[in-house]
Amino acid sequence: MPIIKNEQFIKAPIELCFDLARNVDIHTQTTTKTRERAVGGITEGLLELGDVVTWEANHFGVKQRLTAEVIIMERPHKFVDVMVKGAFQSFVHTHQFIEHLDGTIMTDIFEYKSPLGIFGSVADALFLKKYMSEFIATRATELKRIAEKRV
Q1: Which are the contacts of 3, defined by CB distance < 8 A and separation ≥ 6?
Q2: Are 7 and 144 spatial neighbours (Cβ–Cβ below 8 Å)?
Q3: Which domains can be identified in the chain, with CATH numbers?
C-alpha cells in the first residue's frame, strides 16, 4: 500500500491553516487543475466529524467521482478522511497541523490501495504514486498561498 507524505510550512496560525484545509470552498480553489468540485453531501463550508462529501474531478482526462467521510476531527491538530466510494480500492488521508515558531507545519499523509490487484500495483510504480504526490503537493502550496495572504 503506497504512502505519500507531504510537509508544508505555512507562515500563518494553526487555527487558520486547519480551517482552510477542511473548507470545501477552499478545496475547490486549490484543485483548479483537476476542476474538482463538491457535488454531494457537504458542498460548502467547513467539514466536521461524520461529514460526507462527494467530489467530482477530471483525472487523466476522465471525469471521476469520489466520496469521502471525515472519521477523526481533533481541531486544530488533526483530521482524517477515508474513501467511502471511488476509483481507489481504499484510502486514508490524514491531515496534521503542528505549531512551529511563527507558523504551522501542515503534513498530509495519504495511504491508498489501488484497484485491480497487480495491475494497480504496476500503475502505482509507473505513474499513479507520482501523480498523487504532485496533486497533494500542489494543493498544499496553494493552501499556503491562500493562508499567508490572510495573515
Answers
A1: 109, 110, 111
A2: no
A3: 3-150 (3.30.530.20)
pLDDT in tens, 13-39: 999 999 999 999 999 999 999 999 999
C-alpha cell at 119: 495491475
H or E element: which one contains 148?
A: helix 129-150
Torsion of CA 80, 34, 28, 110, to 10 degrees: 10
Q: Distance between CA 93 and CA 81 in Å, rounded?
A: 5
Q: Positive or negative CA dihedral for 132, 134, 137, 139?
A: negative
In angstroms, the CA 78 to CA 99 distance is 12
Predicted TM-score (pTM) above 0.90? yes
For cell 475547490, the residue is 28
- Cell readout for 103 is 507558523
pLDDT in tens, 44-62: 999 999 999 999 999 989 9
In sequence order, what are the residues at sequence separation of 6 or more whose Cβ sits closer than 8 angstroms to the Cβ of residue 44? 24, 25, 38
